[in-house]
Amino acid sequence: MEIWGDESGNLDFAPTGSRYFVVCTIVSHEPTLATDLLELRRSLTERGHELHDGFHAAEDRQAVRDEVFALLAAKRIRIDATYYTKSKAYTRIHDDADYFYKLAWYMHMRYVLPQVCRGVDDAFIGIATLGVRRRRKLYAEALRDVAAQCLGRTRACCAYWSAASHPAIQAADYCTWAIARLVEGGDPRSYELLKHRVATLHCCF
Q1: How many whole angstroms separate alpha carbon 105 and alpha carbon 125?
Q2: Which residue from 126, 124, 125, 121 is spatially nearest to 154, judged by alpha carbons?
Q3: b/e string for 122-134 if b means 16 or more Cβ within 10 A?
Q4: Which residue from 148, 138, 77, 71 is spatially nearest to 106, judged by alpha carbons?
Q5: Which of 101, 143, 137, 95 is nearest to 10 (CA)?
Q6: Which of 14, 58, 91, 104 is deepest in the core (most CB within 10 A)?
Q7: Pairing state between β 198-203 and 20-28
Q8: What's the pTM?
Q9: Domain spanning 2-203: which superfamily?
Q10: pLDDT (tens digit per residue) in 105-156
């Protein structure tokens, strides 16, 4: 069992920041998802698109997005997302971004992991890195603790990797971006392409 995740939005509560913080995971039942994305990257490069660090939805051209979304829509993936209205968070959370990060993932994982890992002995969880280098170890440990709390008897290996390092994390980035566009900006176009793969889309607060 492989689970890949990403998030969207910033962790601070400044008025100029994002209104929401979104966490999203995908489970792929397609063993060729990563290789198919690599092959698409090669094809797009041959057609003149520069993709030095792989796919990144916020930065890719629309022509690239169209082809990535088409590939993901055709794959047997499960998408789960939880988003948080930052203005509704308790005041004590505003000054503790690390706690907010762990809470956001815990609230998501405690619902999703028991569903997708039912009857599974081992799970690999790969989450995109966030923040500066000195915080990455802290966030990696937070995610391992969250997984341990939510998985019960299932053994988990948690990896905290850069999005550029694995195509499946880039797939999670695309799914997260589509949902963030929906909840943050009211733009459903990309979400509509994937909504048949969305198992849960939950507003926690």
Answers
A1: 12
A2: 121
A3: ebebbbbbeeeee
A4: 148
A5: 101
A6: 104
A7: unpaired
A8: 0.95
A9: Ribonuclease H-like superfamily/Ribonuclease H (3.30.420.10)
A10: 999 999 999 999 999 999 999 999 986 667 888 899 999 999 999 998 899 9
